[in-house]
Specification:
This protein is mainly alpha-helical. It has helices spanning 2-5, 8-22, 28-52, 69-85, 105-108, 133-150, 170-186, 188-193, 196-205, 211-231, 237-246, 254-259, 272-295, 298-318, 325-340, 354-371; strands spanning 261-263, 267-270. The chain contains 16 helices and two strands. The two termini are 31 Å apart.
């Protein structure tokens, strides 16, 4: 009671050093729950479903499926489903959701809840802030079609990609993209929760044919990495690093956590290790993907892939608050499947201009979002990778 009688500035002075040493203060069981969700239900669960429903060997026969396009496509759809249901980056105590630990599906299948249309005055039939049966049907249909796609067979061999089972029927991908767009125009939160700027863009890649599928997916991943690196070119990212390391369950000794501050407990600005880690990680994310994209195999590709795997694992090991953990696992999978498994597929194999068009649209959205942040949402502008 005495603590709460103190003025806000005094409470902040007391709590800030405690955060620096202990982070959010969540019990270790919370981290175990996140690790279980990430490894068992997302990573193993997604790959198991993708292989078992595609006529491929069991998931432990990694060499038989790891670079099959249909597996990558189903992982994209599984991740989109995982996110839009509410099990992904908005889940649980580390996102200040306790009881229940998720929202999304609990609200979006209920009429008369709140919705937020992005352009109610410009797009016909989207005005209003109350969820109707139409919104419920659109969201439910998206979930159903994602499940149908995940459990469907491929359309046949694709020699250009060394695929024996091919990819999912185009109508399924087109339906997913269409329903995501329609539901998003009625309620932008659904589009954002599905991580439409990542998985929606990658879904569009599967509307193409042959090598264009892989080229387009590589270009989208390249934009994601470069957009993430660009978002970190600011003055506040070192603060994010010091705060993230405070919450790190791996580096538990307090003396290590204190190192990331200028002079604990009197000066809690980011210390030299935080500043170095912030700038070094930004350089990795902005430069190494270019090597991945243009190297087309050999040791440069393998070294770049190893660096990016370490980069994403470093983020994962911190289990930070409010961070899209599944996205980091997905990008590690993308490194192996796209950039190593199809290292030889590059711009010289283009069969149509559509992958370039998609690249211009996605990259243009990121550029506009950084120059005019009031016009483009935080997520499509890819400004969230630097923390908040």
């Amino acid at each position: 009671n005495a603590f709460f009688k103190e003025p806000p500035t005094e409470r902040l002075r007391i709590l800030s050093p405690d955060w620096a040493e202990n982070g959010f203060g969540a019990p270790r069981m919370v981290h175990l729950i996140y690790i279980t969700k990430l490894v068992v239900f997302f990573a193993i669960g997604g790959v198991t479903l993708a292989t078992a429903t595609s006529g491929l060997p069991a998931f432990w026969h990694v060499t038989e499926w790891w670079n099959q396009p249909i597996v990558y496509q189903k992982v994209v759809f599984y991740t989109m489903l995982f996110e839009v249901v509410g099990l992904g980056c908005g889940f649980g105590p580390l996102n200040n959701r306790f009881f229940p630990p998720m929202g999304s599906v609990l609200y979006w299948l209920r009429p008369k809840t709140i919705r937020l249309p992005p352009w109610p005055g410009r797009v016909p039939l989207t005005a209003g802030d109350t969820r109707t049966p139409v919104d419920v049907v659109l969201y439910g249909a998206l979930l159903v079609v994602l499940l149908i796609a995940i459990f469907s067979d491929g359309t046949g061999p694709i020699p250009a990609l060394g695929s024996t089972v091919g990819v999912l029927p185009v109508w399924q991908t087109a339906t997913v993209v269409g329903l995501l767009a329609l539901a998003g125009l009625r309620d932008k939160v659904i589009f954002l929760a599905a991580r439409g700027e990542v998985y929606g863009s990658l879904a569009v890649c599967f509307l193409f044919a042959g090598a264009d599928i892989v080229i387009a997916a590589k270009l989208v991943c390249l934009v994601i990495w470069l957009g993430a690196a660009t978002s970190k070119l600011n003055k506040h990212f070192p603060f994010v690093i010091s705060t993230m390391m405070s919450n790190n369950p791996v580096f538990r000794p307090r003396w290590i956590k204190r190192m990331f501050f200028e002079r604990f407990p009197d000066d809690l600005r980011p210390g030299r290790p935080s500043r170095f880690l912030a700038h070094f990680s930004t350089a990795i994310e902005g430069l190494v993907p270019l090597v991945l994209f243009f190297s087309h195999g050999g040791w440069p590709t393998y070294i770049a892939a190893f660096v990016m795997l370490c980069f994403h694992f470093g983020i994962l090991s911190s289990i930070p608050m409010g961070v899209p953990l599944e996205w980091n696992v997905f990008m590690m999978f993308s490194v192996l499947t796209l950039f190593v498994g199809h290292a030889g597929v590059g711009l010289g194999d283009l069969q149509s201009p559509w992958p370039i068009v998609l690249f211009v649209v996605v990259a243009g959205t990121v550029a506009v979002g950084n120059m005019f942040p009031r016009k483009v949402s935080f997520l499509p502008g890819m400004r969230y990778y630097a923390g908040n």
